[in-house]
Specification:
Shape: globular
Largest sheet: 3 strands, parallel
Protein name: Phosphoglycolate phosphatase
CATH class: Alpha Beta
CATH superfamily: HAD superfamily/HAD-like
CATH topology: Rossmann fold
Strand order of the largest sheet: 1-2-3
Distance between the termini: 32 Å
Pfam families: Hydrolase_like
Number of strands: 3
InterPro entries: HAD-like_sf, HAD_sf
Strand content: 5-15%
């Protein structure tokens, strides 16, 4: 199902919410950012992915709440409460809307 799977740890500098970790992965995979989905449980993950030009999914759990996405934080493309829910989203057709 997944062509590429990579984890970037906190040791990577600069850290999220800087887009550098996501851009680094896109470069290594030779993929355009718009073909990548960043999945995280923190608003820094959403910000980093958004700044890098990817789609984003926020895993909402006890440690992270949708309310953490304060004004000025870019919205996530998908909000999920389990990784099983993410799989359900990934199995659906994706409709890309052109930018205005």
């Amino acid at each position: 199902m997944f062509d590429h799977l990579q984890v970037v740890t906190r040791e990577f500098q600069p850290n999220k919410p800087d887009p550098a970790p996501v851009s680094h992965m896109a470069l290594n995979w030779e993929l355009p950012a718009e073909n990548i989905l960043v999945v995280g449980d923190d608003k820094a993950d959403v910000i980093s992915g958004h700044k890098a030009g990817t789609m984003t999914a926020l895993l909402i759990n006890d440690a992270s709440k949708a309310s953490e996405l304060t004004p000025g934080t870019p919205p996530c493309d998908i909000a999920i409460s389990s990784l099983h829910q993410l799989l359900e989203h990934l199995q659906k057709p994706i409709i890309i809307k052109p930018s205005d």
